[in-house]
Amino acid sequence: MVQCAEDKLLVRVQLDLFGTRHLIKAADLTLGSAGCRPTRIYSQNHTVLFDYGLHECGSKLQMSGDFLIYTTHLTHSPEYHGSVIVRTNGAVVPIECRYFRKGNVSSNPIRPTWIPFSSTRSGEGLLSFSLRLMNGDWLTERTSTVYYLGDLIHIEAAVSMSNHMPLKLYIDRCVATLSPDKDSTPRYSIVDHNGCLLDSKAEDSFSTFVLPSGEREMDKLWFDLDAFRFFGDDHSLIFITCHLKVTPVDRRDSRNKACTFQKTPNIWTPLEESSIDICACCRVGNCATRELRFGSRGRRDLVAEAESEVGLKWEAEASLGPLIILDTDVTKLAMDSLNEGRMQEKSPGGVESEVVLIVTLTVTAVSLISASLITLFLYRKRNQTLFTQSSN
User: Fold this and answer.
1) Which of 113, 134, 160, 215 could join 154 in a cystine, given CB atoms 3.0 to 4.6 angstroms apart?
2) Does domain 114-328 have CATH number 2.40.50.140?
């Protein structure tokens, strides 16, 4: 239960956190990135209370539309308590407190049913950056954060650019971690070097930047991320934090790009065609050098010149998570294989097999019936002969 007061946050937690009748340890619960401990423990009803100020425990303040949003998270990290086994797993439960900017107050906890959570950050108070999970059609937002190994995670980066000159969105870097803290360890670089999708170079990865409609929208950027888990981690949760930015539409250089590694030709390719090899620096992992670019009027300028112009560049960080990554659903794979087999039986090649089977069954049935009738006839004839002999 979460209560958002005027200046404080109250979080009451049942020690039967997972509803399995196995009580967790109060010492394994913390609030926020600062790891605040419970302020009170109620042993009689197996609950604990966190009573802290809105700005305490590492909570973050964001502004979205008409709301001020304070975000934090409740963490359960099982520790060693004298037993070599555990009957509960770790968990991270995101929590939000939304304050209507005109004075109304409401609380909106994200319960362990794992309602999707994403953060929105404003760059310089002018542009609003965000990350969202999308369905495969790239038209609707995905409501579930649960994925299986082997799934593709469709991620949309977006920026709100109302009342602004045309700008284009880019992703500088993205990192995956086990907690909302992007600097925590372990961490895994998904995108780096000003737009190089590093995960696409992994041998077993199908990650890539995509153009769903064949033409890129200036205020959005999409990429598929092949689901993964951290080695040796049993929490099944990952958080993704990305550094987003916008630049003038005519900017094309090694620091403003979206590049994917193509394994077959063994090269880095840009999402959009370019007259210069803007992805070359992905091979060496250093894209911070100054390079020449082509402007919309065909003139060549240094990148530094555009950066010196006031108001042409904004950037901020946006986060997404927790995403729940489960082991491959073997049951689903088995059902898919079974359905595929059934479809093959109904295919033109399978119709012939089905006809042969029906004919075989029909012949077998007729043979059995004929044999039964012959046996019955001989049996009755034998009984009739015996009766005649006994009468004589």
Assistant:
1) 134
2) no
CA separation for the pair 257, 278 (Å, rounded) = 7
CB neighbour list of residue 354: distance below 8 Å, 6 or more residues apart? 345
> What is the reported pTM?
0.53
Contacts of 140 (CB under 8 A, 6+ apart): 134
Please state whether 269 falls in left (phi above 0), alpha (psi between -120 and 50) or beta: beta
Q: Residue 163 has what DSSP assignment?
A: T
pLDDT of residue 128: 84
CA distance 60 to 270: 35
Task: Give the residue, 69 or 361, on which the prediction is more confident.
Answer: 69
**Following DSSP, what letter does each residue of 231-269 receive, concatenated?**
TT--S-EEEEEEEEEEEETT--BTTB--EEEETTTTEEE
Residues 225, 202: contact at Cβ < 8 Å?
no
Q: Residue 201: which pLDDT band, with cuts at 50, 70 and 90?
A: very high
Average pLDDT of the segment spanning 156-163: 80
pLDDT at 226 over 90: yes
Task: Give the DSSP letter string of 304-329.
Answer: HHHHHSTTS-EEEEEEEEEEEEEPP-
- What are the φ and ψ backbone dihedral angles of 219, each rounded to 5 degrees? -95, 10
Confidence check: pLDDT of 389 > 90 = no
CA dist 263 and 125 (Å) reads: 41
Backbone angles phi, psi at 384, to 5 degrees: -65, -40
Cα→Cα distances 381→17, 135, 378, 391, Å: 80, 76, 5, 16
Q: Is 373 exposed, middle or buried (0-12, 13-18, 19+ CB in 10 A)?
A: exposed
Domain 1-113 annotated CATH 2.30.110.10: no
Name every residue whose Cβ is closer than 8 Å to that of residue 313 and which is 6 or more positions away in sequence.
245, 246, 247, 306, 307
305 falls in which pLDDT band (50, 70, 90)? very low
Cα 320 from chain centroid (whole Å): 9
- Domain boundaries defined on the chain: 1-113, 114-328, 350-391
Per-residue pLDDT at 8:
87
Q: Which of 360, 323, 349, 382 is nearest to 178 (CA)?
A: 323
